[in-house]
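On clarity, I found the account of how folds are encoded harder to follow than it need be. For illustration, here is how one protein appears when written out as sequence plus structure tokens.
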Amino acid sequence: MNERESQPSRSRTNGQAEEATIYTETRMLQDQTGRLLYIGDASTLSILQLIRIIVENTAGSDMGSPFINDPKRHRIMENIIDFPENMKIPSMLPDRQTADVLVDSYFTNTCGIIEVFDKRAFIADVDTCYLDPLSTSPRFLCHLFLVLALGLLLAAPTPGSIEEEIIRKQLSAKEDRAEVFFRSAKTMCDPDSGFEDADFWSVQALSLMTIYMLAVSKRNRAYAYLGMAVRSSYALGLHREETMNDFIFTEVQMRVRRNLWKTLFILDRFLAASLGRPAAINLLDCSCKLVPDDDINSPLMTAEPPTLGAIHAKSLNSCVRSCRIIGETLAVFATRKISTTKVQEIADRSNENGQGPHTTLQRRLPKEGPTHPAEGIATLHMDLLSLHSLILLTRQLFIMHNWKIEEQRSGITKPAPLYDSPMARYSEACVVASYHTIHLVQRAREAGYLPRRNPFIIYFLFAASVVVFMNQFASMYRTDAYAQSTTDAIATMKFCAETDPQAKRVLEIMEKFAKVVTKWTTDHTFDAPELSGDLSGLYSQMASPQLSHEQGSSLASMPSPREPDTPRMVGVSHLTSLPGPAVPLPAVPLPSLSELLIPHHSASHTDTRMNGTSPSHPTGPSLPPPLDPRPSLSSHSLVDSSMPMDEDIEFDFDGLWSNWINHVVPVSAMPPGIAPLAPQFPPQLPSVGAETYGGFTMPSEPRISPVVISGSLPLYHSSSFG
């Protein structure tokens, strides 16, 4: 496993294409049982290991040793639950008051992202069940036990309330009550055992089991359950619009079928993105309308004040739109290449009806918080998924932009306007979305409705924190919000880690990364522009002139979330000079991100400048309008400094890994006492117990035969960090 592959050779014959020997790179992680599980490019775990390589080759192994050489980096969290063998299963149903609290917790904490049942009909069935439990259908009992399990895991009761007392009693039981409920559901009517004869109820049960497995940190099993649910739903025609026939189903049944299909679609895209694996649902095979054509302007959505049902429906449809963008991004990742033109195309499609990720920065949230926790959770799910779709779309360009900046700072390439380019625009958008993700989660925690074991929120917060730490480490964009945002992110993850094993592991990674960033940036400072608080310039054109005007003006007048009434000094972001909306925006200066996220009177934050850098660069000249396609450029070619940075750039992912693996900073650019690290790569794998995150490779024997491909392609060697 520790043998290094010989470096592939590359030669060029005058006037002929390059020929490159490409070795297959395998990215495998090991779980607690020793299984090797595949993790792809879309996963934050892949980016995390690439960032470890960047940190090592930039700062040295001594500087980042606890983070770089984390003994758990070769593992993936697949939680193992200790359960007593003599426990009687199925258990009795809890008392009615406990059941009511757990059922309400389930519907509250899945609001806006999951809909498996019609809530009114389900609660009516619960009433019937408790009136006569012996005559209740085993299928409904299966559903009820699963809902009780999820309600207990996701519960975020109000402190001092009777609900908190009931939840605390359940959590303090000797046995894991959530696991008892889950196993009781499987014994009542196991949808897994009758998979070949699956009916609609079993698709509902498999969907709930998928969410449960996510909540208990068993993502691989969740991926398997979801695959079963999707296959069964295909057999039942949930994916086809023509099956939504009022001669067959009632209006309520059709709505439940459609919303269950939306739920499967959201879960599918989330798991595919978080694990970097192929999605189970191919929209080319589906005709079911995921979002109605008149969704935005329907009376349900425009009602004042909006009902909780309307908020849930709006959030669910918004999550579906975000997952469509995630699906398009995953399709690009499958080609192993990405370009600024392709990113622009997907970003423009994300702004359908003016509902792009930029709207999460403009939404005015009430100072007193949501009127009901379900309203807050629904809005949080909607906003976080929208922001993560943008982070996922732009994250590879963020890493590539970092590479270009590092080349320039180390003297490999000549100075170029790296911040006045489309790549810089997407790179900055990735950082802005990450900061805002942390801010939204912090608001939910402060308001008291943030669950401790919500797998979606934990993953989105972790992905955003990794980008924020990397931005700080590389001195890419300067913002006063760093200190407060990272403090909030770590505090929130500590809050979740009290009960969630996944959050506990993620917290360890974040704390180690934060220490490396603090240590490195103390003595290494670079000039960097100030981070913008705006995303409206991300799109080629806005949905309508009126909408563009409102978006352009709302940001400038948006009060600070932490200090709503405090007047602010507003600076002009360099982002406004980049190609943006086709419709001119008002001549109103845009606030920086720090002005949106932190109060200006806070002495603990106003003195915190990113890496101690100097003020931002002045706004550069306007760039040529919309991009024209250009030939593919491999990042391995180290990017010719004479190449215009305002044109389309395309690179492939393997070259991006190879750049950092083989990169050796010139001696003149290296801090004293740090030796070149590339010859030492890859490090020897330590022998550790089965734990979590990181990279892992298959043994080198038997070797895979080299594949010879003609064309301009990057070269790389296989890596134990994969």
